[in-house]
Amino acid sequence: MPVTIPQDLPAAEVLKQENIFFMTKERAIHQDIRPLQIALLNLMPNKIRTEEQFLRLLGNTALQVELTFLTTATYQSKHTPISYLQTFYQTFEQVRGSHFDALIITGSPVETLAFEEVAYWKELTEILAWADEHVYSSFFVCWAAQAALYHHYGIEKHLLPKKLSGVYSHTVKQKGHPLVRGFDDFFWAPHSRNTAVDETKLSSVQDLIVLSDSEEAGLYLAASKDGRKVFVTGHSEYDELTLHDEYQRDLAAALNPEKPLNYYQGDEVTVRWRGHAHLLFSNWLNYHIYQSTPYQLDQISKVLQHS
């Protein structure tokens, strides 16, 4: 949460120069507080584990969040019982008339397919179009980031020579941007993917800002200039053993995988991305949603039309 200070306090200028967020008392007393309404479109096979990963990050801030879990109607998950989905999830049709402060779309193990070959591609494009008018800020993870970049900006993905798997060092490229506020100059984040997007293509799009990349893993974090679309090509949400379990799965499937880089010390897993993950989500929730979204959710469409 921001620090609240008196109007015209001399320290305000110092705080501003150091990129520390603050709020005047006059502004603070006019703020109403309500739970943030966030929809999570869960495209991962192990939905329960994915729920846990995102809930850890969304629940570690001072902001109150109410989560709505979404699943696709045009594709039935083979790894999650229908009864579970019917109990805890809704489909797009059930929320089409609703508004949300934010939308998260997870990764999906379909990245080697052309986008149009994905079973739920048409439904996903409808959700992306709907989010433009019904959601204040959207957060796209891994394959979903690639899919959203393709849908909104026509940026293609390409197949990597081998799977990118491990924990990689990244550089902050836009230190003054709210989304990376408080980041170290170098930070670690996991990647697990077979495809990538060309960072130079993003740099040529006027609406996009590249915020972080890696010499080894390439593009990591980008956003639209208005903060309404955030693209993360890695998996900051991964828990301690996710990469290990994926590696064991690929070994069992005789895929001859390489060990995830910068992940094991001997036989033990080293977690070095957790602090970054919490800060990334905290910044997104605070600066791109809480400080910007209208108090009345049904006013989102009107606010966006006049922005």
Indicate the topology.
Elements: E1 3-5, H1 11-17, E2 22-24, H2 25-28, E3 36-41, H3 47-58, E4 65-70, H4 82-88, E5 89-90, H5 92-95, E6 100-105, H6 121-134, E7 135-141, H7 143-153, E8 157-172, E9 186-197, H8 199-203, E10 208-214, E11 218-224, E12 229-232, H9 242-252, E13 264-265, E14 268-269, H10 274-290, H11 300-305
Quick structural summary:
The chain has 307 residues and is of the alpha/beta class. 32% of the residues lie in helices and 27% in strands.
Would you mind describing this structure in some detail?
Pathway: Amino-acid biosynthesis; L-methionine biosynthesis via de novo pathway; O-acetyl-L-homoserine from L-homoserine: step 1/1. Keywords: Acyltransferase, Amino-acid biosynthesis, Cytoplasm, Methionine biosynthesis, Transferase. By secondary structure, the protein is an alpha/beta fold. The protein has helices at 11-17, 25-28, 47-58, 82-88, 92-95, 121-134, 143-153, 199-203, 242-252, 274-290, 300-305; strands at residues 3-5, 22-24, 36-41, 65-70, 89-90, 100-105, 135-141, 157-172, 186-197, 208-214, 218-224, 229-232, 264-265, 268-269. The strands form three sheets. The protein has a ten-stranded mixed sheet with strand order 5-4-3-6-7-12-11-10-8-9, with helices on both faces. Strands 1-2 form a two-stranded parallel sheet. A two-stranded antiparallel ribbon has the order 13-14. The model is unreliable at 1-6 (pLDDT under 50).
Oligomer: single chain
* Alpha-carbon distance between the two ends: 25 Å
Under CATH at level 1, the class stands as: Alpha Beta
In CATH terms, what is the fold-level topology?
Rossmann fold
Shape annotation: globular
Which strands sit side by side, in order, in the main sheet? 5-4-3-6-7-12-11-10-8-9
Total helix count?
Answer: 11
Catalytic activity: L-homoserine + acetyl-CoA = O-acetyl-L-homoserine + CoA
Active site: 142, 235, 237
EC number: 2.3.1.31
Main location: cytoplasm
